[in-house]
Design brief:
six-stranded antiparallel β-sheet; 8 helices; 12 strands; three-stranded antiparallel β-sheet; single chain; about 280 residues
Amino acid sequence: MGIVRKTSRSKKSKDPLLGKVVAGRYRLESLLGEGGMGVVYRARHVLIDRVVALKLIRPDLRGETHLRAWMVREARAANRVDHAHIVDIHDVGETEEGELYLVMEYLIGDSLSSQIAKGPMPIARAVDILEQMTAALARAHDLGVVHRDLKPENIVVTQGRDGETAKVLDFGLAKLFEGNVGTQVTSSGTIVGTPYYMSPEQIQGQELDGRSDVYAIGAIMYECVVGKPPFEAPNPVGVLSKHLSEEPLRPSARSPLSLPAEADEIILRCLEKDPVSYT
């Protein structure tokens, strides 16, 4: 698997872009997957034979001009941080048709969401993955980058000689601070993110800083050890409402695995409703 989850498309012949050479350099070899705004291909640099992941705006959204800013923001955010546990951005440019593309390192691994789908993780494994992730985010926050869309789908776990390596992806919704001023793709007051992992202040459209990512980390850690997110409801509005008004059950009360008291304490601390609790 590449850097994103696979889609339901199974026949290469259905995608007219396969085999196309983008910008005279990157031949599109296979479809890796697609998300809410972008589609990602496995591609090969025709001159140096390097395999990469190439992201384009989804064909049905290419008339949405603000998505160009989203892709540029993703490239700027990832490159500003330049951390071992954040996906590398190699190149950004325009196709012959004037569409923006983003070239990233090609990762062979599974999303954290795929790992969680297999069942709750032993606490030691979950802590190892989350420590790598938080090291990257601490660096991002120090450099004025807030991710704003942390979720298991945006974390890829690869296998290597030294064990598992976690990489954080998709900085397309990131907020970048220049001095004391935050810049972002969406307008002020617009809610962005994924309901299961959104902080109360993010849901309310307030100004965000790194503490909002801390809340998302708590929700992800909860899901790693329990197998389910801290709040569930029949619809996204119900999930958002619970983030605002309900306290999560202790992870140890829901997990089929034995969890130390420290795990409950750390996870619930991250899931505090009031970001002032972190200061």
